[in-house]
Design goal:
Elements: E1 10-14, E2 17-20, H1 21-44, H2 50-75, H3 78-83, H4 98-115, H5 120-127, H6 131-144, H7 173-192, E3 197-198, H8 201-217, H9 237-259, E4 262-263
Antiparallel strand pairs: 1-2, 3-4
Helix pairs in contact: 1-2, 1-6, 2-4, 4-5, 6-7, 7-8, 8-9
Amino acid sequence: MLPYPQIDPVAIAIGPLKIHWYGLMYLVGIGGAWWLAARRLPRFAPDWNAEKLSDMVFWVALGVVAGGRLGYVLFYDLHSYLQDPSLILQVWKGGMSFHGGFLGVLICSWIFARRNGKRLFELVDFIAPLVPIGLGAGRIGNFINAELWGKPTDLPWAMIFPTDPAHLPRHPSQLYQFALEGVALFVILWFYSSKPRPTMAVSGLFALCYGIFRFLVEFVRVPDAQLGYLAFGWLTMGQLLCMPMILVGCGLLFWAYRHEKPHAVRAG
């Protein structure tokens, strides 16, 4: 068994002002994606300047935060938020939904693409390889918060989380998701997009791989207490939400290679 590192969730405290690691992880994700987007921009839109890029980052970040929070409220804990709507603003306590953020990014990307002469999937293909940076950083935030831990296990890398009332050795499922959704997904998309691909192909590969990775990790992750298992005694909300992602990913890849010609958006 490995010891849990006991990191204080509050990174900086200045009087009543507290800056949480969870919030800082979002800044890491957005900042890292912004830096890599600037590297790729000349190949995607040579006529776009730094101001245009900053506008795009703003719209995408808006989709992540607003969609992620609203998605969590709607998909995972609507009853609690109806009882106390002020909880919606307490993002430092966690409670963000990837699938809500995913939908938020699609909506904001569609708006931004229409305003700037791009097709939706041209823009999403450009954005997709950047997303795993934020996903990985977010899972590190979950780990520091000691939340979203896994099921009990006797594996040698099991950990006892301070937020677990049972004090049982558990799968560090946050680190599994960091490795798969953050590191592995980034490597796959970065190298895949390093060569010209048909429009929608990079987006499709993102949806497919994320859906598979998340679906698998959910088998060793404890479901949200307020929901439990939703179908067949083993399917979680995360798995149910990943099923359409996997199907959409397969559909986009099929459509891309059947109907489109490669375009020259490369990773750099």
